[in-house]
Amino acid sequence: MFDLILQDTGSRARRGRITTRRGVIETPVFMPVGTQATVKTASPRELRELRAQIILGNSYHLFVRPGLEVLRRLGGLHRFMAWNGPILTDSGGFQVFSLTRLRKITEEGVHFQSHIDGAPCFIGPETAMEIQSALGSDIAMVFDECPPYPCERDAAAASLERTLRWARRCKDWNDRQEARPLLFGIVQGSTFADLRRAGAEALAAMDFDGYAVGGVSVGEPEAEMLRAVENSEPWLPARKPRYAMGLGTPPQLVEMIARGVDMFDCVLPTRLARNGTAFTERGTINLKNSPFAADPGPIEEGCACPACAEFSRGYLRHLIKAEEILGLRLVTLHNLHFYLNLTARIRAALEAGTFGAFRAQFVANYKAREAGAGL
Amino acid sequence: MFDLILQDTGSRARRGRITTRRGVIETPVFMPVGTQATVKTASPRELRELRAQIILGNSYHLFVRPGLEVLRRLGGLHRFMAWNGPILTDSGGFQVFSLTRLRKITEEGVHFQSHIDGAPCFIGPETAMEIQSALGSDIAMVFDECPPYPCERDAAAASLERTLRWARRCKDWNDRQEARPLLFGIVQGSTFADLRRAGAEALAAMDFDGYAVGGVSVGEPEAEMLRAVENSEPWLPARKPRYAMGLGTPPQLVEMIARGVDMFDCVLPTRLARNGTAFTERGTINLKNSPFAADPGPIEEGCACPACAEFSRGYLRHLIKAEEILGLRLVTLHNLHFYLNLTARIRAALEAGTFGAFRAQFVANYKAREAGAGL
User: Fold this and answer.
1) Measuring CA to CA, which of A66, A249, B31, B145 is 20 to 30 A from B165?
2) Residues 6+ away with beta carbon under 8 Å from B303
3) Chains A & B: contacts with CB separation below 8 Å
4) Catalytic site residues of B?
5) CATH number of A2-267
6) A368 vs A374: CA distance, rounded Å
7) Do B82 and A311 touch (CB under 8 A)?
8) By the CB < 8 Å criterion, does B309 face chain A?
């Protein structure tokens, strides 16, 4: 299901192709996040026009609302949200550990209260797989325990052990299905190199369809985030896709691709758009700022996105100041285009053998006005 | 500029065509409201695809934000919002009287405080025309005084007199311009038949390009609203377009068309959408209601709008409950389509000589679950 088309000679970057039951994904790939069965503000048609190849759905959020009964009766997630392309679903592990209250972690799984109405809920490895099956996921993730940052070594080791036992149960559950999605393992191990290696090797031995680096984007400094990737990647099979979960800024994407990562999801393009922040080649700009009030130019000259094609910075600023939804829509489309186009350019650079030059120039151009907290 | 194509034989309804400097408008016509330089949640492309022929802009709102200086520097309202079709601009009269605080009305105009930041502002007849000129309006409205409901006769008469003097000043200002927009007079006179007649006749004598019935949709009962139209229309020139401002529910549109009105604007389709309310042939439905949770059908069977083409009531309910912007977008598109399609069907019925039957059937079908307060 994964063709390794090309290995860059100057870095660990790869050009690949993942085949899912709902279509082919060219890697490196950015995956827009559709937490609640919608990529915030965007329509499926707009996502197709932006050439999104695959989007994310979230088991936890859809489990608590609208619930599996509704999703089953309405034909699964693809039909529900009218997206016919591939969908990767997060298992809910990350959300259970970050969003919910009064949780009790047992070997069986996690008891928690819904963040919507406080209703008592349970998700364990098998439940997580059942949810993803009901959603009709094309790439499912194992249910993992996501330790906080920072984390003591003993706690990280115990957590990793449980994550590995849960990964085994997820794989066993999935192997029993007839029409099974691709299933990815998730490497945990916090900031400890030996734990990351042990996690990666144990998962590799279970032979997953792909491997994610998890437990990142939880408040750690950027250097720790890159180290988590560096400490996991060498122990993962070369002929399987690698996915860095929940990351990151544009230069971070470039740097992680250079470290052998193939897949990314990140809420920054959609979340920052709703604050009026737009990505450009030279870093982010906040369109609320007054110098943009009468600026007739697009967010970025030469940008091919629907916002830059028709609308000025001055108009976008007006919409955002007036709290008009069209403003959030247009900046979201621009930001998604920026991320999707960045990975498209990287794929082209890999094919042309110019990734090293692209990487150096892009990262240098991009002023590191850090876009997200802790990133 | 107005071709009266056809006069219905069984009612006062007409089929017409208005020629503006930015294109032709087939009447009866519904005009989506773009108060702050955007029809709420919708893009210009979506409006074109819904076959909107003309949209509204609002002088008052654009005057206070982003202000005329920005609009001038960014090339006027059409270029600002990337809408190339005709725009009708309200003069600001209605908003000055309904939205602002601490106003002082003089013969010269109205002093008020901006509803955004309390800044002291002034709009008079000439200012209103200057604003509409800066916006690049294709159909401008005179600056009028809009009395509240109910209104004493003496106050209504005095207000009407001032509105007529202001109308004269607006027309004089406009007549001095080289590239002038079409200019419509506004009939006031509150609930008094003789004042409505006097207002209509006085405006007709000034020879405007079209005539609006104003001072409606200010809290009066539906019967009074229809009477305001009935008391104005007979005294307006047959060969000029008539516009009922800020109205109304779908059956009200049909009934006003039967009374000789050609043009409508109304915030109901966009405003109610943001509350999860959708228009159907049998009245409005609120998609938040739990029976829709697992409903696989579209808002309305057979509807050709983008929401009904791809999405179920169950999905729309989920989006609205989850406060996802895509839900507001899709219901807005459905509701705008409903209004635009209603007027398209009426134009076809007029041409086929079947408007009487259409009117009877539509109004009977439509369960009068009144959609807007006071309407």
Assistant:
1) B31
2) B334, B337, B338
3) 110
4) 90, 265
5) 3.20.20.105
6) 13
7) yes
8) no
Residues A330 and A300: their CA atoms lie apart, in Å, by 13
Confidence of residue B369 (pLDDT cuts 50, 70, 90): low
Average pLDDT of B99-109?
85
Residue A241, SS3 per DSSP: coil
Helix H or strand E segment including A252: helix A250-258
B66: closest chain A residue by CA: A318
Rounded to an integer, what distance in angstroms lies between the CA atom of residue A28 and that of residue A261? 7
Angstrom distances, CA of residue B147 to CA of B67, B93, B129, B220: 26, 10, 21, 12
Candidates B318, B319, B336, partner chain A, best to mutate (most A CBs within 10 A): B318
CB A166 within 8 A of CB A144: yes
Among candidates B207, B204, B217, which has minimal Cα distance to B245?
A: B217
C-alpha span between B243 and B229 (Å, rounded) = 10
Chain A positions in Cβ-Cβ contact with residue B321 (cut-off 8 Å): 65-66
Q: Which residue has the tokens 């808002």?
A: B299
**Which residues of chain A have a CB within 8 Å of the CB of B69?**
294
| Eight-class DSSP state of A33 | B
Confidence of residue A292 (pLDDT cuts 50, 70, 90): very high
Q: Report pTM.
A: 0.96
Chain centre to alpha carbon of residue B125: 20
Tens of pLDDT, residue by residue over A307-337, are: 999 999 999 999 999 999 999 999 999 999 9
Confidence of residue A102 (pLDDT cuts 50, 70, 90): low
ipTM of the complex: 0.96
What is the CATH topology of the domain spanning B2-265? Answer: TIM Barrel (3.20.20)
- Residue A300 pLDDT more than 60? yes
Q: What is the CA radius of gyration of chain A?
A: 20
A114 touches chain B (CB under 8 A): no
- From chain B, the residues in CB contact with A43 under 8 A are 326, 329-330
| Whether pLDDT at B178 is above 60 | yes
For the beta sheet containing A120-123, the strands, ordered from the edge strand earlier in sequence to the opposite edge, are A101-105, A110-113, A120-123
Asked if B294 and A81 come within 8 Å (Cβ–Cβ), the reply is: no
The gap from C-alpha A239 to its chain's centroid, in whole angstroms, comes to 20
Question: Using an 8 Å Cβ cutoff, are B175 and B207 in contact?
Answer: no
**Given pLDDT bands bounded at 50, 70 and 90, which one contains residue B373?**
very low
What secondary structure does DSSP assign to A313-336, as a single string? HHHHHHHHHTT-HHHHHHHHHHHH
**Looking at the complex, does the CB of residue B82 fall below 8 Å from at least one CB of chain A?**
yes
Least confident interval from A40-54, A109-123, A261-275: A109-123
From B158, B237, B163, select the one nearest B205 (Cα to Cα): B237
| Cα–Cα distance for residue pair A311/A296, rounded to 1 Å | 8
Distance, CA of A119 to CA of A245 (rounded, Å): 28
Residue A301: is its pLDDT beyond 80?
A: yes
Contact criterion met (CB < 8 Å) for B70 and A294: yes
Residues of chain B contacting A326 with CB distance shorter than 8 Å:
38, 40-43
Task: Return the H-helix or E-strand segment holding A79.
Answer: helix A76-81
Nearest to A273 by CA among A339, A222, A346, A367: A339
Q: Does A289 touch chain B (CB under 8 A)?
A: no
Q: ∠ at Cα A150 (A139, A190), nearest 5°? A: 40
- The structure tokens listed for B269 are 């389709």
Question: Can you give the residue ranges of every domain in chain B?
Answer: 2-265, 273-365
Question: How much of chain A, in percent, has pLDDT values that exceed 90?
Answer: 91
* H-assigned helices in A13-66: 44-49, 59-64
